[in-house]
What we know:
By secondary structure, chain A is mainly beta.
Amino acid sequence: AQSVTQLDSQVPVFEEAPVELRCNYSSSVSVYLFWYVQYPNQGLQLLLKYLSGSTLVKGINGFEAEFNKSQTSFHLRKPSVHISDTAEYFCAVSDSGTYKYIFGTGTRLKVLA
Amino acid sequence: NAGVTQTPKFRVLKTGQSMTLLCAQDMNHEYMYWYRQDPGMGLRLIHYSVGEGTTAKGEVPDGYNVSRLKKQNFLLGLESAAPSQTSVYFCASSYYKGPQPYGYTFGSGTRLTVV
Lengths: 113, 115
């Protein structure tokens, strides 16, 4: 069965510094990958997705992610974070044909002033 | 365009009581899902549906039942609530273009406490 690993449960970073949130998935022939953000007491909002094509995916709020098939990774990056980026970030994977998403355990990003 | 609507938003139950959580979507999505979110465990799939009249078990189905009598609604039932079911429940819906997923949209969640 497909699985997703987010190695970092919490990532503190100073404002305007770059950040990378790591996501690895178990290998599969055809996968679709997603990053979601959850602000406190809210639902999940799609940041970006990789379905096919270019391995560098740009999303909302200045975030981007790179699909690396050989390393089975889909790490999320932002060159300069803001206080408002403080939230929990979830990586998710969908196998072709299974019609469901499997989520990682989340990474709590805390941006410090 | 409301998207995915969950009711209620909050509920407190006593152990052994039953309740139904309602999820409604107005996007004509074929697929619907129920997840639970617990600290440090991410979102875990409880049950899902690939179309009206169908349901399937996810990762953590025990203690829950679901029904999809109408395409736009997906109900999650707890027959006899237990404290271990204290959680935040999220409903989602999606559609697919061939094998590729699109439009995975979440509701705002239901916070359930079982005492």
